Amino acid sequence: MKRWRNLLLLFASVLLLSFLVAGCGGGKQETGNQQSSEKIVAKFSHVTAPGTPKGLAAQKFADLVKERTKGRMEIQVFPSSQLYGDKDEFEALQANNVQFIAPSAGKLISFDPRFQIGDMPFLFKDNQGASRFWDSEEGKKLLQSLEKQGMLGLTAWPNGMRQFMNSKKELKTPADFQGLKFRIPAGGVLVDIFQALGAGTSNIPFSEVYTAMQQKVVDGTIATFDNIENEKYAEVLNYLTVANVNNLSYIVVVNKQFWDGLPADLRQTVEQCLKEATDYERQEADKLDQESLAKLKQKIKVYELTPQERQAFVQAMQPVWAKYEPIIGKELFEAAKKVNQ
Questions:
Q1: Residue-range definition of the domain harbouring residue 239
Q2: For a Cys-Cys bond, which of 52, 59, 189, 231 suits 48, CB 3.0-4.6 Å?
Q3: In the record, which residues are listed under signal peptide (predicted)?
């Protein structure tokens, strides 16, 4: 009897010890400072073609992440609006259906109107000037303003300077725009730019621009050399005016909850990969811009404004500047001017 009692006591002790060990192990939670062995898959959705600077940089980013994390994290890239278009990619990001997007700065004005600085006419000299602004303290603060919307602005990918393009005639003076209608990617500054020139506008999703111009819904658009070439706009439009109106910068935006949930060591690696992809994008943007212009000169009429002609456009934009300087803020304007002198 005593032997059975001792066996029961031994069994109970072992059982209790196993519960205590399991309890200690089960209470341990994964945090941002710990490594996770589970593979993380993120989706990067954007609207442009794979061969554009943005398309190339997004894939470069994905390749670097896969290599540097040794398979712990995979970024799947979906270009050309395969998953979401201009109108619904923000909702998808906030719902964490995708984790990364790269909209143009002008698309962010519904979250913070100061992002309209990217569309201001004749403020940025070139891609380098835009990069210097977004990398400045004021530029970084603007990117951080998206945090309250459940998103984080991580960096900027300047794509090129926007130019005027249309199917009707050469555009050499502000008066030449009277009665024409142009596609724009977003409202705000771009609407006022064309209104100041006497032209109408239509906000059309990027994926529908070619068809809209082919069907004469609009007479033209404002776009970078690279986008014009990649999207084959020269097939439906005949005239290109090199005016360097404003800079098209794409902002790499991530879902904040997803980003904060990454293990700290992994997030640091991803940040470094994004920095390298950003450097790559900026180099490719300048190279592809010039290559695209050379190709376009073989297909359509390209007219480059003289300094005097360009000054007439600058003068026509003064009402636009007067309207938006109070909205955007003097500090941001001064920061942009300082790095574009």
A1: 40-338
A2: 52
A3: 1-22
Torsion of CA 181, 243, 109, 41, to 10 degrees: 110
In CATH, what number is assigned to the domain containing residue 103? 3.40.190.170
Quote the tokens at residue 319. Answer: 């009402």
Residues 6+ apart with CB under 8 A from 311: none
Q: Is residue 324 part of a domain?
A: yes
What's the total number of domains in the chain?
A: 1
Region of 198 (left: φ > 0; alpha: ψ -120 to 50; beta: rest) is: left
pTM of the model: 0.86
DSSP string, 259-307: HHHS-HHHHHHHHHHHHHHHHHHHHHHHHHHHHHHHHHHTTSEEEEPPH
Q: What stretches in the chain show pLDDT beneath 70?
A: 1-37
pLDDT at 251: 98
What number of other Cβ atoms are within 10 A of residue 160's Cβ?
Answer: 27
The amino acid sitting at 96 is N
Q: Is residue 1 part of a domain?
A: no
For residue 27, is it within any domain?
Answer: no
Indicate the length of the chain as a whole number.
341
**How far is the C-alpha of 184 from the C-alpha of 299, rounded, in Å?**
23
CA atoms of 286 and 60, how far apart (whole Å): 17
Neighbours of 32 (CB within 10 A): 14
* Antiparallel, parallel or unpaired: β 151-161 and 247-255: antiparallel
Would 6 be classed as within a structural domain? no
